[in-house]
Specification:
This protein is mostly helical. The chain has 28 helices and no strands. Pfam families: Insc_C, INSC_LBD. InterPro entries: ARM-like, ARM-type_fold, Armadillo, Insc_C, INSC_LBD, INSC_LBD_sf, Inscuteable.
Length: 545
């Protein structure tokens, strides 16, 4: 996911722009007042949107206090927030309702009738508030949506009446007979609610795509794309809805119009999100999206940000984790142009994030087709990548090193690769990668460090069939490091995949340089079958004495 690749950089940016340093110079009472105004009050105002008084809501039934239509007031209400804010509020409310329905089912199983009733009343309020809020900012909802709104409200009222009768009786037989009716009603409410939310989100996606397609205004188009991107961040289901409604087609139209060049990065970022689902990929193929991406990447008049976001789309659609990339036949036709442009982007990257996106795309392409490795070798890509690793401002995270070592591992199957590694001091880099450790303890970063260790060991194992590479590895003390990774679970973060890779690399180096191992290491880590050595290492317990 591109968002994972960006996360390390976003955290650093967020830390740099918290904007709280200026408080230190203020008197203590003023500091406190500022914090109260910014933190507590603002937080309270945000929470207030999702809070309702259950008793009042039951009485008012979400009806307006005034029976006269006040169009001016309606306009003020609807323009208070942007479409994006309104959709976020709707999604938050929907999440609350979904959570409450799950909790009601759990309490119902335990026959906690009082809790079931109070939660039912709360759900009733949230449903009415959600419908009321949505109808406040939308003006053209469909008849089908209104029907589902009525069905949902009626069922919620029926549900509340059921649970109210339950708390007024203590007869176990009556409660038992009513329980099945309540379960059935709860299931129906969940179905109506799911269908209504689906209709609402489809409706909003259609509106946003219509705005993007019909507007000539850069400002309006930018606002609509921004709202669409926010929707894509809510999960794969929303990406499917957008793709089915023609989102990929509409966004690629923007990428083919020079008047919207300033919106290309934002548009491509949205496309990368949508293409995480199969429907998005099919749409991309239909509109010759690969050709458009190749044109953008090879056009030197575009900004680096545009090239980086185009690389992010390539990385997404060629991800080895996706099972539906086989139909991208047009990618092979444009692969050489794309790979050449991505290597150039890696070489000229001005920041760690740009390098990360470009190298991630290259890494995925090396899985996608073996011909990519031969193209990379012809382009001196290994020399460029190894040089980039020496610049700590460019290759500055385990995520970036993961992409580089993935490319090296996939290229190492080629015989010509060994000489390139020796010339670029690549064995030294692989040795350093065997020491990769997370500085933050973040689970995603820890996983990235494990992948770096594993792939560097795999690359060493593959390259050590060349005596020159094996000799360089032995001289750099790779054997003692591999032994430590095998014997010490904490050094490899208890990773079995790192252990297997290290055992394989150690065995290859032992063949080339048997004098580098002590007899006990040879007897336990090299001589037995690989599976036996693996079991021996995984059963080792560290002594804390």
């Amino acid at each position: 996911d591109c968002s994972l690749w960006r996360s390390a950089h976003k955290n650093r940016i967020n830390m740099a722009f918290k904007g709280e340093d200026h408080l230190d110079s203020l008197p203590l009472p003023v500091q406190r007042m500022h914090l109260i105004q910014v933190d507590s009050v603002q937080r309270w105002m945000e929470d207030l949107k999702l809070m309702t008084d259950c008793e009042c809501m039951c009485i008012l039934q979400s009806k307006p206090i005034s029976i006269e239509k006040d169009e001016q007031n309606e306009l003020i209400l609807s323009s208070q927030y942007s479409t994006c804010d309104n959709l976020q509020l709707l999604l938050k409310r929907a999440w609350i309702i979904s959570t409450e329905l799950t909790r009601i089912a759990q309490k119902l199983e335990k026959n906690r009738w009082q809790r079931v009733h109070s939660m039912t009343v709360r759900v009733n309020c949230h449903v009415r508030s959600m419908i009321n809020e949505y109808n406040t900012f939308t003006r053209n909802s469909s008849e089908e949506m209104h029907q589902f709104e009525k069905l949902l409200i009626d069922k919620c009222s029926e549900f509340t009446a059921f649970t109210e009768r339950c708390i007024q009786t203590e007869d176990e037989q009556i409660l038992k007979s009513m329980k099945s009716c309540i379960n059935e009603t709860l299931t129906t409410i969940a179905q109506y609610f799911g269908q209504l939310i689906e209709l609402v989100l489809t409706h909003e996606a259609q509106n946003l795509l219509r705005q993007i397609e019909l507007s000539d205004s850069v400002y309006v188009t930018e606002s609509a794309i921004s709202s669409l991107f926010s929707l894509t961040q809510e999960g794969a289901h929303l990406c499917r809805i957008i793709a089915k409604e023609g989102g990929v087609v509409v966004l690629f139209k923007i990428c083919r119009q020079d008047c919207f060049r300033c919106l290309y990065p934002q548009t491509l970022r949205t496309l990368a999100s949508i293409c995480c689902v199969e429907e998005g990929m099919h749409q991309l193929e239909k509109v010759d999206g690969i050709l458009c991406l190749a044109d953008i990447l090879t056009d030197n008049t575009h900004s680096e940000a545009t090239h980086a976001e185009a690389a992010a789309v390539i990385a997404q659609i060629t991800s080895p984790h996706l099972t539906f990339t086989q139909h991208l036949s047009s990618f092979l036709e444009n692969m050489e142009e794309i790979v050449t442009a991505l290597v150039k982007l890696c070489q000229e990257a001005s920041s760690g994030e740009v390098f990360l996106l470009a190298s991630a795309a290259l890494a995925n392409i090396t899985f996608f087709d073996t011909m990519a490795c031969e193209i990379l070798l012809q382009l001196n890509a290994m020399k460029i990548l190894l040089a980039a690793c020496s610049d700590k401002h460019i290759v500055d995270t385990p995520y970036s090193r993961d992409q580089v070592v993935t490319i090296l591992a996939n290229m190492s199957v080629l015989d010509q690769c060994a000489s390139e590694i020796i010339q670029g001091n690549g064995v030294q880099l692989l040795m350093e990668m065997l020491f990769e450790r997370s500085s933050s303890g973040n689970s995603a970063e820890v996983a990235a460090c494990e992948r770096v260790q594993q792939k560097s060991a795999v690359t060493l194992a593959r390259l050590s069939r060349d005596p020159e590479v094996a000799d360089a590895a032995v001289k750099l003390s790779c054997i003692p490091r591999l032994i430590k990774l095998c014997r010490s679970p904490t050094e490899r973060n208890n990773s079995d995949s790192v252990l297997v890779a290290c055992l394989a690399a150690l065995r290859r180096l032992a063949v080339m340089s048997p004098d580098g191992l002590e007899d006990s290491d040879f007897q336990q880590l090299v001589k037995p079958r690989l599976v036996d050595s693996f079991l021996l290492c995984t059963n080792m317990e560290e002594s804390f004495v």
